[in-house]
Amino acid sequence: MSEPAQTPESRRSRREQARAAALVVLSALVTLFAVLNVKDVEVNWIFGKLQTPLIVVIVVSLLVGGLLTHFAELRNRRKQR
Fold first, then answer.
1. What is residue 45's predicted lDDT score, i.e. its pLDDT?
2. Which residues pair with 50 in a beta bridge?
3. Which residues contact residue 67 at a Cβ distance below 8 angstroms, ignoring those fewer than 6 apart?
4. Beta strands in 1-81 (DSSP E)
5. How far is C-alpha 29 from the geometric centre of its chain's CA atoms?
6. Distance of alpha carbon 5 from alpha carbon 2, whole angstroms
7. What is the pLDDT of residues 11-49, one digit of tens each?
8. Cβ pair 53, 39 in contact under 8 A
């Protein structure tokens, strides 16, 4: 039996394969990280104390940090003009 002919569009380049493999590994690591950080912790939020899963605290912290960085960069760009 002969293999079916593949068109250039149907073959993936090594770069695409490496990117897909990296995404699979990254997804596995993020999932593992989330599963290992589900223990409830007491957090003093602005509106009060709550028992919250640690992964929620981590994600909220990352989002707040990302937003602050984004707005600081916008402010810096405006100052440079």
1. 77
2. 43
3. none
4. 40-45, 48-53
5. 10
6. 9
7. 779 899 999 999 999 999 988 988 898 899 999 878 889
8. yes
